[in-house]
Amino acid sequence: MTHTPHPTGYAGHLLPRGEKDPSRRALLAAPLALGVLSACDRFATAQPAPPPVAPLRSIAPFPIGSAVMSGQFDDPAWVALAREQVSQLTPEWEMKMEYILQSPGRMTFDAPDRIAAVCAAEGVRLHGHALIWYSQGEQAFAGLEGRAFAAAFDRYIAEVAGRYRGKVISWDVVNEPIAEDGNGLRDHHWSRALGADGYMIRAFEQAKAADPDAILFLNDYNLENNPVKGATFLRTVERLLKAGAPIGGLGTQSHLDIEIPAGQITAFMRELGAFGLPVHVSELDASLRRERRGDFRSRPQRLEQQQARVVELAEAFMALPAAQRFAFTAWGLRDSDSWLRRDDKDDGKDQPLLFDDAGRAKPLTAAVAGVFGRG
Ligand code: G3I
């Protein structure tokens, strides 16, 4: 897999290098400009006027986050929306092994360094994602066994978490440990070399040593959608904590299945909060796609389901004690930024995120803002 590394360096702001750095006022006028354009666009396409919604970061009593790719800093519309709406960013893929270990024998940090530098320059929190993930690293660690494997595992975490010490507030130390169907743990190169729980305990210990101040998260998906998987995650957290793993936070990705029964999200969030640790809604999106044949739901019906589940998630998160509400992060800003609009199943019509393709608020945005505004 070849990557075209993003240009190194940054303008010290969310703006592309070399571009005259307009005053913040001028840049923040961008949404106004977008508003004027969309007004014309609206008449032309007779779209319903998006509801006026105050910036989520100014309404919510906790950080609002988004996934980011370094190339998005070169998109003034993305920059304007991000500045207006979020106070935390998560690298969508450039702080993972697939990027950092893309060249055998060396580590590539240009893109994650740019993200870290922009967050520092903009006073935006940075959530590191992800140190150890079942789906990456097998090729890079191939041929290593026993003590050599363990040493390389430790070295990778020390290098990466050490590099961003003081730059990230937190890490997804282990991502997606639970089996897809929720029955037990995943089996992969990390668990086979270091043990089913062993690799996780080791990863958290190494991350703690490398960055003692970072909040260290265990992060997984489908925990609300699949109660069996959610229960296995909770049992795993309990077991790892008992074993002394320095887990400091719990991440539920919340890639929501909008057809799950009402109440399932609330029930899981309540049990997740019972550990008393910070909780991160870490990757919210709620696809409208028809994933199966014979799905005859109308678009309005799917939009209604989507809003009901996302509002339930927002309410369940709001119900946590304030000290446990780490951040509410969407897996992208605009629908068109979503990974779901980049995969082979995309029909170009999915609307999984909180802002539309033009960066405008949607009825969904207003509904979520209404929940967060309850203070
Ligand atoms: O930008 C490069 C492009 O220049 C290159 O031509 C192309 C082909 O190699 O790759 C492009 O980078 C891709 C990147 O997404 C941006 O599209 C990477 O190959 C691809 O691996 C990467 O996929 C990411 C995936 O995690 C794997 O890291 C997705 O963006 C990202 O949304 C997804 O996020 C995961 C979370 O980390 C964990 N939870 C599930 C979530 C969704 O799968």
Notes on the protein architecture:
There is one protein chain. The chain has 375 residues and is α/β, with parallel strands linked by helices. It has one domain: Alpha-Beta Barrel (TIM Barrel), CATH 3.20.20.80. The protein contains twelve helices and nine strands. An eight-stranded parallel β-barrel has the order 1-2-3-4-5-6-8-9, surrounded by four helices. Helix 6 links the parallel strand 3 and strand 4. Helix 6 packs parallel to helix 8. The longest helix is centred in the N-terminal third of the chain and has 22 residues. The N terminus is likely disordered. Ligand G3I binds next to loops.
CATH architecture: Alpha-Beta Barrel
Stated plainly, the CATH topology is called TIM Barrel
Strand order of the main beta sheet, please? 1-2-3-4-5-6-8-9
Ligands: ligand G3I
Summarize the structure.
The protein has twelve helices and nine strands. The chain has helices at 24-45, 56-59, 76-85, 97-100, 110-122, 146-163, 189-194, 198-210, 227-242, 264-273, 299-318, 363-372, and strands at residues 64-68, 88-91, 125-133, 170-175, 215-220, 249-252, 255-256, 279-286, 325-330.
